[in-house]
Write a structure and sequence with these properties.
Helices cover 18% and strands 43% of the residues. The N and C termini lie far apart (45 Å). The chain has helices at 34-45, 58-65, 85-93, 113-121, 189-195, 214-223; strands spanning 2-7, 27-29, 32-33, 49-54, 68-69, 72-78, 100-104, 107-109, 127-135, 140-144, 147-152, 156-168, 199-202, 208-210, 227-230, 233-240, 244-251, 256-259, 263-270, 272-275, 278-281, 285-289, 292-296, 300-307. It is built from 6 helices and 24 strands. It folds into 2 domains: 2-211, Spore Coat Polysaccharide Biosynthesis Protein SpsA, Chain A (Alpha-Beta Complex); 228-307, Sandwich (Jelly Rolls). The longest helix is centred in the first third of the chain and has 12 residues, at 34-45. Strands 5-6-4-1-7-12-9-13 form an 8-stranded mixed β-sheet, with helices on both faces. It has a 6-stranded antiparallel β-sheet with strand order 15-16-17-24-19-22, with no helix packed on it. Strands 18-23-20-21 form a 4-stranded antiparallel β-sheet, with no helix packed on it.
């Protein structure tokens, strides 16, 4: 199994930021880029080798990550001119015949990577696609006949969109070399595989963002203000005055996190977990002295108030 990132776009909607760097290297906080986060995800998955399928300013990516980054072996396939994502994947397959975890180079998600891999391994589908609920770009007006009942600001709709994250099994690789009219995977190979009942959908109710505009970038930077990604989830400092720190801790299903900041008050925002061997669920508030070990039975968010 290898990882691969489609990172050949121009990032036109993020100009002038992308005049000098590719979109994948746009920082979401100081010293931490979109691709940094994506490579972190691959490491969490246990992937050891990653191919960057680049084009525009691809040399900047090569300069940043070199031959090895965070224990990952880095490989680069750079196009001199845009050829489309179908060409990019064909080029990759000509170099490898492994299962491929492929992702778009402009997305960030808190999806449970290990659970995604487990689902793919146990699936009979040759392509597993991460899908997320579509968020309306507009506010919704709820009506009854000609009466307006309510206004809902940009809700999630009962439709799914492609989140740009895939598991492609090696037995499916030859289909990418069949004849197609078009250059992009979404309009060529994927529909054909779907018609042959080769494509499965995986979904989670979790953070997912495609960074496609200044507004998207502003939103993800706000999310990453005082946030640190961990292999088990993340910790985000909400408030600190030197004596007291309030944090949001997110622990993925099956993972364990440690909070060791002296005396702590923990409020379970959502989920089901154990704290130092005691079962807790949404709404519970507990006091712990010393280290608090949080083991998540399902995705769990905890508000942690620590005093020193």
């Amino acid at each position: 199994m290898i990882g691969a990132i489609l990172a050949g776009g121009y990032g036109k909607r993020l100009k002038p930021l992308t005049d000098e760097i590719p979109k994948a290297l746009v920082p979401i906080k100081e010293g931490y880029t979109i691709m940094d986060r994506q490579l972190f995800d691959f490491r969490v998955m246990g992937i050891e080798e990653v191919y960057i399928l680049s084009g525009y300013l691809g040399q900047k990516i090569e300069e940043r990550y070199g031959d090895e980054y965070m224990g990952l072996k880095m490989r680069y396939l750079r196009e001199e001119r845009p050829m489309g994502t179908l060409f990019s994947l064909r080029n990759l397959i000509s170099h490898v015949r492994d299962d491929i975890v492929l992702r778009n180079g402009d997305t960030i998600t808190d999806m449970n990577m290990k659970r995604f891999l487990e689902y793919a391994a146990n699936s009979n589908y040759q392509l597993l696609m991460f899908v997320v609920k579509m968020k309306s770009p507009y506010g919704i007006v709820e009506t009854l006949g000609d009466q307006v009942l309510n206004f809902v600001e940009k809700p999630f709709l009962n439709h799914f969109i492609n989140a740009g994250f895939y598991y492609i099994k090696r037995e499916a690789l030859d289909i990418f070399f069949e004849d197609y009219h078009g250059k992009d995977l979404e309009t060529t190979v994927f529909p054909r595989m779907a018609r042959r009942k080769m494509v499965g959908a995986y979904t989670e109710d979790t953070l997912w963002m495609g960074i496609d505009s200044e507004k998207d970038l502003e939103q993800i930077r706000e999310e990453y203000s005082n946030r640190e990604d961990m292999e088990w989830g993340y910790r985000k400092v909400i408030f600190s005055d030197g004596r007291r720190t309030v944090s949001e801790v997110f622990v993925r299903t099956g993972e364990r996190a440690s909070v060791d900041d002296g005396e702590s008050i923990l409020r379970i925002i959502s989920g089901l977990a154990e704290v130092n061997g005691k079962a807790v669920h949404t709404g519970d508030v507990i006091l712990e002295e010393g280290k608090a070990e949080i083991t998540a039975y399902e995705d769990t968010k905890v508000e942690v108030i620590c005093t020193r």
